[in-house]
């Protein structure tokens, strides 16, 4: 490649916009309080520096929060007319928009994702979820679950670190719209935006106890899930933890939805619009550093175009800018934690050991912080670990196929089933393939598109239940 | 076939009308949603400080300063040429533009005014902008412009023939024009606003390249929409694929509707990241524009002086 005569000057967003405080407290019963647990330190993954100290909950805090949520449920929230609940949700949505820049910078600092994505995807989509569900709050009788569906009660929600505020919105917006109250545990490494969201709840005048935020590690999540005062459990995270939760909840009568891991197949047929397929593949696996449960981490390419497609793909990946997440020109940011980086490195090394060919983008990486260069493995076989296990990082495994039937067989040969992609100019082939694929979401000629009106969820070890759209309301209604 | 072609396939493609059709229709399809999403995504690159100063100077050096009005006079062309020679008299380090682009009857005036300056003279020809005339008339138009000294010819393709599927006719005509151009560089105007689909834009781009166009150009500026970012992305992909297939470097010129520095920088980002850095030169990328230059000059001053001086500080020619 020719040396570029044009170096983009760094264009960093100011950290000050985040209004970062030295310490954050948990939010219970409408008040910020100290937790009984050992305080957590939230780290900027791009530098390794401590951003803030965050109070963490202990088991008694879980109990207090669940009681606060129960009392708010009984006294105000469940009996409030839908039109009134809608007003609160609209207010929250507008406040998220108003404080959008602050939230975007905070999210990028805490999570390591590029500001381009937190600004253009995470925060606007989070606001959209509140707007969408605000619209449902007074129309639940028209959702197809009977003329007057009732809320479940207190929802215990545990969310992951890959989209901290967006996952919070996916969980809290439908719960509140349907009349439930919430105790939410954000991920250990990314609690900050959830605690600023708590401020937004106060700003919106939300009655105390309707939303409670409890930072903490896995043990607090486990205590929340097991608490007898919780009527509904919603979890997004790893399949392993999802299985534990399912065991805990079994036989208790609690309602449960799980949104777990994935190993999505992105199938490129030989008649695909190649340049856009390359964009879709890049978006599918390098969006949010590949920290996406529905990431298109297995590329299945028809053999007749495989070489051509891979050449175009590598050329495109070389142009991805990896680095400071606060720089507006960064395409791929930092890996969320040292632990996650180690896991990605270990799985990628297994690809070498099993005989796949590794190609790594020659992009320069920052000296500090947790970074992993975009990586593509070709010559991958179905039996290899990198074709079966979720890597949750910017690592793409490329397999080939000869016939459409083989593509479907390989795509479905996974314990997961969250998402899939099809690339073809032929409409009938797209419809045929979409019917064959066992996945909760199938994208055609696009990838990683999210909308509050579209239900999202998985098959098999990717979990059950749906979030978003009319279908998503079912998880928070007594039906 | 969904692959970018080899050079032997390219020579087969132009054997006759049928093989040309088969070739053009075998090019990979274009997905509208994906293309427009990519174009919108790249348009959010933030270009500041040194990178912006470099972009402004580069954009100035890529401008084909254009006047294509029925009301054009020799006086108007002289004024434009003066501007082309010295875009900002108060700042002599300002780069010159690439060319002045006029109608063929005014080419001689421009040639006279720009003699020895290094600024090229581009003349539109072939019954610009409609392209609706007998081939002999179009060729005579080109011959006239070349004889007047124009060293760049901007031709329009016969969109009627293209949309009717008579690719061979379009191909032959570009070839014939190229033959009478002599040493003059040929820019082939596709008038993408009239081609209706992105698939057609890709086919027309390849047709222009196969027939020997030195540049492919989006528009005449007389049809809306003129240049757009997605269309320019497609044409940049075409010249990149052409380079991969043949090793030859051909140019791209968006024209019409690019009025300010911000837009121009978005196009440069596309050049940089879609075709590649080697296209960041006036030899391979041009802006067809009349009012863009003044905004570039004002922004250049803003960058150098640290404050904005306003439109009265640059000449309005």
From TrEMBL, chain A:
The beginning of the lineage is: Bacteria, Bacillati, Actinomycetota, Actinomycetes, Pseudonocardiales
What Gene3D superfamilies does UniProt report for this protein, alphabetically? Aldehyde Dehydrogenase, Chain A, domain 1, Aldehyde Dehydrogenase, Chain A, domain 2
Q: Does the keyword Cell membrane apply?
A: no
Which residues carry out catalysis? 259
Give the species this sequence originates from.
Saccharopolyspora antimicrobica
Q: Which SUPFAM superfamilies does the record associate with it?
A: ALDH-like
Q: Where is the Aldehyde dehydrogenase domain?
A: 34-478
User: Has the keyword Kinase been applied to this entry?
Assistant: no
Q: Which UniProt keywords apply?
A: Oxidoreductase
What family is this protein classified in? Belongs to the aldehyde dehydrogenase family.
Q: What is this protein called?
A: Aldehyde dehydrogenase (NAD+)
Superkingdom: Bacteria
Name one molecular function that GO assigns to this entry. Answer: oxidoreductase activity, acting on the aldehyde or oxo group of donors, NAD or NADP as acceptor
TrEMBL record, chain B:
Q: Does the keyword Endoplasmic reticulum apply?
A: no
Q: Which GO terms describe its molecular function?
A: deoxyribose-phosphate aldolase activity
The protein's enzyme class: lyase
The EC code for this enzyme is 4.1.2.4
Note the SMART domains from the entry. Answer: DeoC (SM01133)
Listed InterPro entries: Aldolase_TIM (IPR013785), DeoC (IPR011343), DeoC/FbaB/LacD_aldolase (IPR002915)
Pathways per UniProt: Carbohydrate degradation; 2-deoxy-D-ribose 1-phosphate degradation; D-glyceraldehyde 3-phosphate and acetaldehyde from 2-deoxy-alpha-D-ribose 1-phosphate: step 2/2
Reactions catalysed, as given in the entry: 2-deoxy-D-ribose 5-phosphate = D-glyceraldehyde 3-phosphate + acetaldehyde
Q: Name one GO cellular component term.
A: cytoplasm
Supply the alphabetized keyword list.
Lyase, Schiff base
Which Pfam families does UniProt cross-reference here? DeoC
Q: Which GO terms describe its biological process?
A: carbohydrate catabolic process; deoxyribonucleotide catabolic process
Q: Which family does it belong to?
A: Belongs to the DeoC/FbaB aldolase family. DeoC type 2 subfamily.
| Name of the protein described by the UniProt record | Deoxyribose-phosphate aldolase
Species name for this entry? Saccharopolyspora antimicrobica
Q: Could you read off the lineage of the organism from its UniProt record? A: Bacteria, Bacillati, Actinomycetota, Actinomycetes, Pseudonocardiales
């Amino acid at each position: 490649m020719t040396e570029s005569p044009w170096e983009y000057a760094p264009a960093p967003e100011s950290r000050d916009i985040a209004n970062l405080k030295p310490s954050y407290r948990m939010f219970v019963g409408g008040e910020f309080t100290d937790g009984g647990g050992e305080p957590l330190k939230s780290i900027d993954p791009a530098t390794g520096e401590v951003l803030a100290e965050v109070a963490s909950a202990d088991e008694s805090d879980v109990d207090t929060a669940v009681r606060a949520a129960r009392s708010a449920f009984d006294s105000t929230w469940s009996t409030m007319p839908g039109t009134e609940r809608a007003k609160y949700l609209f207010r929250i949505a507008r406040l998220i928009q108003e404080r959008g820049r602050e939230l975007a910078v905070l999210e990028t600092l805490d999570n390591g994702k590029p500001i381009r994505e937190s600004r253009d995807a995470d925060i606007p989509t989070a606001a959209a979820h509140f707007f969408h569900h605000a619209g449902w709050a007074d129309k639940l009788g028209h959702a197809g679950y009977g003329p007057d569906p009732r809320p479940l009660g207190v929802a215990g929600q545990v969310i992951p670190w890959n989209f901290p505020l967006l996952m919070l919105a996916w969980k809290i917006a439908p719960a509140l719209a349907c009349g439930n109250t919430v105790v939410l545990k954000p991920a250990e490494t990314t609690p900050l935006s959830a605690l600023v969201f708590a401020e937004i709840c106060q700003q919106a005048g939300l009655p105390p106890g309707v939303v409670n935020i409890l930072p903490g590690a896995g043990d607090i999540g486990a205590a929340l899930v097991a608490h007898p005062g919780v009527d509904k459990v919603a979890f997004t995270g790893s399949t392993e933890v999802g299985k534990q939760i399912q065991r805990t909840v079994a036989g208790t009568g609690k309602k449960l939805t799980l949104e777990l891991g994935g190993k999505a197949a992105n199938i490129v047929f030989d008649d695909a619009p190649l340049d856009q397929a390359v964009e879709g593949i890049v978006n599918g696996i390098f969006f949010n550093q590949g920290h996406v449960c529905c990431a298109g981490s297995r590329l299945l390419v028809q053999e007749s175009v495989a070489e051509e497609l891979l050449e175009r793909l590598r050329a495109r990946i070389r142009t991805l800018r990896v680095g400071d997440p606060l720089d507006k020109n960064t395409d791929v940011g930092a890996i969320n934690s040292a632990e996650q980086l180690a896991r990605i490195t270990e799985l990628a090394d297994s690809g070498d050991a099993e005989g796949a060919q590794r190609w790594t983008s020659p992009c320069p990486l920052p000296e500090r912080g947790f970074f992993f260069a975009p990586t593509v493995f070709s010559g991958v076989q179905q039996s290899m670990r990198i074709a079966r296990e979720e890597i949750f990082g910017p690592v793409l495994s490329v397999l080939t196929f000869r016939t459409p039937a083989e593509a479907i067989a390989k795509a479905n040969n996974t314990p997961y089933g969250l998402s899939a992609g099809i690339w073809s100019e032929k409409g009938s082939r797209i419809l045929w393939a979409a019917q064959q694929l066992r996945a909760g979401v199938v994208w055609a000629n696009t990838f990683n598109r999210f909308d509050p009106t579209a239900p999202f969820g998985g098959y098999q070890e990717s979990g059950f239940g749906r979030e978003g759209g009319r279908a998503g309301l079912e998880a928070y209604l007594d039906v | 076939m969904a692959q970018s072609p080899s050079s032997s396939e390219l020579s087969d493609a132009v054997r006759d009308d049928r093989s040309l059709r088969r070739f053009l229709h075998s090019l990979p399809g274009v997905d509208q949603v994906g293309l427009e999403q990519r174009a919108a995504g790249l348009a959010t690159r933030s270009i500041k400080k040194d990178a912006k100063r470099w972009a402004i100077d580069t954009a100035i050096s890529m401008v084909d300063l254009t006047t294509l009005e029925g009301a054009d006079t020799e006086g108007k062309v002289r004024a434009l040429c003066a501007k082309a020679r010295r875009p900002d008299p108060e700042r002599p380090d300002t780069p010159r533009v690439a060319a002045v682009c006029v109608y063929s009857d005014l080419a001689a005036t421009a040639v006279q005014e720009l003699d020895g300056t290094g600024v090229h003279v581009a003349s539109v020809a072939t019954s610009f902008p409609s392209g609706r005339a007998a081939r002999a008339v179009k060729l005579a138009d080109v011959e006239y412009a070349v004889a007047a000294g124009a060293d760049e010819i901007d031709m329009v393709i016969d969109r009627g023939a293209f949309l009717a599927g008579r690719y061979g006719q379009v191909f032959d005509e570009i070839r014939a024009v190229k033959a009478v151009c002599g040493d003059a560089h040929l820019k082939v105007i596709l008038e993408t606003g009239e081609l209706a689909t992105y698939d057609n834009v890709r086919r027309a781009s390849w047709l222009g390249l196969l027939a020997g166009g030195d540049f492919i150009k989006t528009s005449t500026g007389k049809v809306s929409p003129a240049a757009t970012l997605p269309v320019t992305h497609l044409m940049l992909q075409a010249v990149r694929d052409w380079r991969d297939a043949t090793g030859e470097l051909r140019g791209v010129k968006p024209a019409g509707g690019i009025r300010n520095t911000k837009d121009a920088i978005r196009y440069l980002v596309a050049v940089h990241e879609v075709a590649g850095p080697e296209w960041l030169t006036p030899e391979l990328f041009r802006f067809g524009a009349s009012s863009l230059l003044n905004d570039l000059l004002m922004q250049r001053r803003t960058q150098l002086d640290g404050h904005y001086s306003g439109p009265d500080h640059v000449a309005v020619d």
